[in-house]
Amino acid sequence: MPVPVISVPQMREWESATWASGQTGDEVIRRVGKRIAKRARKLTRAGDDILVLAGPGHNGADARAAREFLDERKVEILEVASPAADLPKLQELLAKDLALIVDGLFGIGLNRPLDDDWQKFLAAINASKTPILAVDVPSGLNCETGEPMGAAIKATLTLAVGAPKTGMLAQAAWPYVGRLEVLDNVGLVRCPIKSELNWVLPDDFRHFPPSRAIASYKNSFGHLAIVAGSSGFHGAAVLASRTAQRAQPGLITLFTQETAYYPIASQLQAPMVTLWRQDTKLFDKASAILLGPGLAGQDVPDDLKSAVRRVWRDSPLPVIVDASALDWITAQALPKNLLRVVTPHPGEAARMLGSTTQKVQANRLQSLREISRRYGNCLVVLKGHQTLIGRSEGEIFVNPSGNPHLAQGGSGDVLSGLIAGFLAQPEVQTDAGLAVRYAVWRHGNAADELQAQGGSWVVEDLVKELGNSL
């Protein structure tokens, strides 16, 4: 199940509950060390030099505990008590060809600004340009506010113990936290804290998608209608359709404009491609509708924009809206039984709110809540680093997968196609929130798999990788 995003006092409460249960701190530290080492091995190769920076607190103990499990690596531990006295030794070690630095200097309890000596010490580490794995929190970062306390480690990867801390998700913290991953199942009791913000874990999808009945046929798995593509933007329609296929709905019909028909139809096989007409009826046979990919340019007629608004307002089916179509839907109350999903990036979210991208990014959670509230309590996928999924009320989920190489044209079309492909399936519709979270996580995870393989990948590779990983 997802883990809550918690404050430092709540983490202390969780630790106290764990010690009260009889679990020992030494055992938790050993488990954390083992998990740190497992991740460090993935970031390095046999024979590589790893520098462990250990402070006097629990983070230092966690970092030191990793050494036992870092077989076939050359590990040096620098015990740091005085940054001024230890700086020459640090500079000597940084002169080596290090593959990784493990940061265990300060933990989540840091509540005072660092003095000049510590600032110089951390600056030397950052200046080395060596990849850094931070234990629980990058040293120097305030876990409540996400602001550096005068200076902070700029980690490549941060491994939060148990759960992410609130400040780590702040925009100000992103340059320091780097990629954020959670070390769960390290011996802590089940988290007693409830939070509106929850971190998605891969295990959340252990039994998803649901298995299919042995005697199924294509009509068992729904019919997705996609309205997409225009002159010069036909690729978005193709990407959305091909990715929707990866979710394996029973049928897909793509409705497009005459100017885009031939380039789209010539690239698709199984999806049916037909012309959009003013009298097109999307409700009749479909089980879900996707509106928006590639609907751009000057040749999108007003009647199509009106149809988007009508479908959003009136269709009894799940409706997913993406890209330019987000500008056409109307802010209004909707019946509670309707399933509506919007997938804006920060710029699109700003237009939906009549705001700016900067304001959206400064408070992503509140931006999601407000979009959902204005647009009929729809389910919102606010894309970007740590994509958020949720509604105007209730839990919001933070997606951990993905990487900066997803910042390519067409990536959003792939995501909307995958979401729609799942939501077209009647059995999946029974837990639409889980389906959307899964699609978002799988989209990012496929990008992570591609990045791990090396090379320079493109969005078409992402579609193919989704097929492999699904």
What would you say about this model in short?
By secondary structure, this protein is α/β, with parallel strands linked by helices. Helices cover 38% and strands 16% of the residues. It has helices spanning 8-20, 25-43, 58-65, 83-94, 116-127, 174-177, 234-246, 258-265, 302-314, 346-353, 357-362, 364-374, 411-423, 426-429, 432-453, 459-469, and strands spanning 3-4, 49-54, 74-79, 98-104, 132-135, 157-161, 179-183, 197-199, 223-227, 251-256, 272-275, 288-291, 319-321, 340-342, 379-382, 388-390, 396-398.
Structure notes:
The chain has 470 residues and is α/β, with parallel strands linked by helices. Helices cover 38% and strands 16% of the residues. It is built from 16 helices and 17 strands. The strands form two sheets. The chain has an eleven-stranded mixed sheet with strand order 1-8-17-16-15-14-13-12-9-10-11, with helices on both faces. It has a six-stranded parallel sheet with strand order 3-2-4-5-6-7, with helices on both faces. It starts with a strand and ends with a helix.
